[in-house]
Fold this sequence. Notes:
heterotrimer, A: 251 residues, mainly alpha, MetI-like fold, two-stranded antiparallel ribbon, 9 helices, 2% strand, C: 259 residues, alpha/beta, Rossmann fold, six-stranded mixed β-sheet, 10 helices, globular
Amino acid sequence: MDAILTLIAPFFRDLYETTGINFNVFYDPYQFKRFLIGAENSILLILAAILLSVIVGVAGAAIQQSRSTWLRWLVGGYIQLFRNTPPMVQLLFFYFGLGAYAPQVDMGGYYQPMVSAFGWAVIALGIFGGAFNVEIFRSGIEAVPKATLEAAESLGFKPWQTFVYFTLPLAFRICLPALTTNLVSLAKTTSLAYVISVPEMANMLNQVWSSTFNIPEMMAVLFCFYVGVVWLLAAFLHWLERRLRLRGYSK
Amino acid sequence: MKSFARSGVLGLVCAFIAAPAYAADVSTGPCGFCVLWDWIPFILNGFALNVVISILAMMLALVLGIGLGLMQISESKLASVPARFVTQLLRNAPWIVILFMIMSLIPYRIEVQGWGNFILSDWIKATFAFSLPVMANVSEILRGAVASVPKGQWESAESLAFSRGQSLRWIILPQCVKQMIPHLMNWFALLVLATPLASIIGVREAVGSAQAAMESAGSSPTLLIPFYFFLMMIFFIFIYPVAIWSRRLERNYAINS
Amino acid sequence: MQSIPDNSAVSLAASPSMVTVSIRDLHLSYGKLEVIKGVSLDIRRGEVVCIIGPSGSGKSTLIRCINGLTPFQSGSITVGDQQVGDAKLDKIRLRRKVGIVFQQYNLFPHKTALQNVMMAPLKVLKEPRAEVERRARELLAKVRLAGKEDSFPGELSGGQQQRVAIARSLAMRPEIMLFDEVTAALDPETVQEVLLTIRELAEDGMTCVLVTHEMAFAREVADHVYFTDGGKIVEHGPPEEIFGSPQDERTQRFLSRLL
């Protein structure tokens, strides 16, 4: 990382000295550190929230296949509640509301909450994104042709084998485009972690512009960072879609 | 549709039962729900601003988005390439980042020659900021809808001596409206759900009002769950019917086509 | 198969040990709709049985009952030493013995032709991969699809897909093959290639049960033909009898409309 800084620093320092355009995060080692912390936390948050939301989605979809009406209603209620309320308020509810009741850990003299702001952000955003994933996975599972599964049954596959070898891989392929849309949207939503002071990119750059007043430049960095990361994620998921596309079936 | 509505209501009931149970086991501090009761009118007053911001931003987004969408499908590269670029850029940027940019880049006061000075208060800037991502998505919805109209429609319009503009106006766009409406409603819902972001920049909408109310009621931790839960509920009550309605329209469209 | 002593075919034909599928007084209904109303029939080892009749006469349902895909209400189906209606039926063992090929092929779209054939022996029978692959390639060659091993179902024609489906069933080394209107969804040009494959199977001595609308084919390959109508067997016998001089008036009407 230091090597990168030495590489780009002269250009940005020169830019500042000749034009006054101050991208100090790209030449000042102290501010560059802030940029790196923000980038690391933002990317980790995106990955963790996506992972949790997919787990929640698969679990929810599996529960919705169950015979218990009671369980299905509970999952249905969860989906509607989290889809139709502001994610920012959900985040505040989890962090301040539930966070106030979370156990504290004795850190030798002072107490620290067991779940950090980052942890609450992952939990809240994972549950928020999961509400959409449940429906996506469920419709994927329902769209797997019954006849294909019957063919598996007729070859002697046990129900769990049929689910693992045929239902899941086919359902995943069917719902991948919808999943891509939702995960990309979730990645954008993780920027809300700003409101509970997770040291992600917006917060770290806020620290920078508060001290050096180069607001427009830092805004540009923030904007480009998110657009770039979201674009990368979307490109990866589209690549996955193409790779997994069923060969010989057009579109 | 019935079971869909029922499951939502049931989830709400469960959540309602769970929330007071949580609040009840805190013995220190005032009863959160009692304090909340007094502040409900104040918070609802703030919520009115969320509604106003949403509606104004949606109208702006529709006008700008349709313009941008028409530019995207234009045959002139000079119009379509920039329109495509703006659309993709704003679709990929988080709401909060767009909000920050608008806040910092648009001055507080604008002078229009011959018209005088305009004061742009924070909520107006927020409205403009929220309209931008919706605008980009309206533009994309329009492009997608036009692309989904079978090619034969263009050809038969052309064979009847319609110009490109006339074909679009009289043949293609009317076929798009029906399938666009559920998507537009969905984006309206997302817009409403994004408006609490305005509280970050100090706009006293529902969330900002609730936070102010908690502060003046002594900032006791017992207030947090009731207040934030109440906020979720007012948004839910406002948005849920929109969600059901747009789903019904979408299903009807899928069946009819 | 090897344990059967090679004495005179005539005495064996009479012996009950030759009967491999035995259906007695089978009844099946979906709610109030009665689909099968008391069907009895016997299928002997090595025999080719064709079931013909108008659509909706319960033919497909009947053969789906034989390998336990469709549950029935009363009566009995015996396949070898197994009772299909038995609550504790070992379905895996039944399905190793009885293969089925469907009208819509139902191949696994995310697997290549070779993988489609290999899946069940690998995962269900847990046989060693090298041996399974060798056999799968042989089977694909046998159904004239050598060279198409790595094609995905979506890249094959209907007739080719159907032959992969036949190979997929054969990979389980079944004793009986069920064919459920396997040519009904195919283009006329590809029907013949599938029928050729079935004919070769029949010539190899495989017990085959076909539900079919290909009357010329049924007449040619069948040892025994059943005519069903309204959930019952109206008439049965050797193909020369059924096609040559049908006794029942419903059979006559059905055949005259087709020929």
